[in-house]
Amino acid sequence: MRVKSVFIICVPMLILALTRCGVMAPASKEITIMSYNLMTLFDPVDQGGEYDGWSVARGQWDEKGYRTRIANTASAVLSAIPGGPDVLVVIEAENKRVLSDLADRLGGYAVILSSPEEQALLSCGILSRFPLRQAKAHLATPPSDAGDSIPRYMLEAELDVEGKCLIVLAAHWKSKLGGAKETEKARRFAADLVRRIMIERIAEDPSAGILLAGDLNENPEEYDLVDRKYLTALMPVSTASGPGLYISADPQEACLQNGKLVLFSPWEQSEGYSYKFSGKEERIDNILLSPGLIKGDAFRFISFSALPPAFLVDETGQPIKWNSKSNTGYSDHLPICLKLAMQKKELSITP
Asked: What's the pTM?
């Protein structure tokens, strides 16, 4: 099944895909992956269109604040995963400079992927210590009745992990600004793009290990949170089959059968949350795993964690977001972390 739609543009190569000399892939048989929404991380140059409060010309943003923020972000990443993750998916980075500066502060990454220029001012990025086989950027423009939504590229990185293929999709779905129900169609459209791409990759290689990481602006239990009054982008596996991205908290339910793709969501295996809205804990940042990461012969799911370093939250548990006036803080989101192991044929494939 090929990914085709008049609304989808697939860019074979990204603007920045660097392989840096002297940066070695990790020797460990365990693979660490992090997804982190950095919260409006602009560089200290007016590119045009920056959000209110981030203008260099008006004295709202400068090199000193930027450098402090890069350092703070790096400290958050390194405290969550000492030494830094093998693969880091970042959300809301302005451009390739931000990704490069962050990568340098983290000790260097062999591969840095940045979205092509797009209408959205903030985009996704992928840093990897594993070599890159190929990369693509998928742009899905929601239909006109999906509400006011600026389309964002979803990145696809095919990584070479000791000769085995790991595919990472990095995405930032439409927020609920404008109403949860009113914006749901845009998220469902983005979820359908993920479904099509994953099914295509699995058709090419049934054991393919694929994961979707990023800020999906949707809780794993979103369908129940809206009292099942309307379809959501992430649907529980117990619902009827049909178009949609289905998830399960049981890894053994991950499968592709009769066109129905079920991904494993590890959130229930961890305490915590990734965001707070009006004091309510939410799990809108996600890492979802394909059947190949559960039942395949290349990788094995080990663990998932959303418990942040203590300094990232205040006494109420609210993430301490960046404050440009005091040059303090981090992000309004918390990082989430996943661990995989290289699978050996003689080992059990039960996580």
From this structure: 0.91
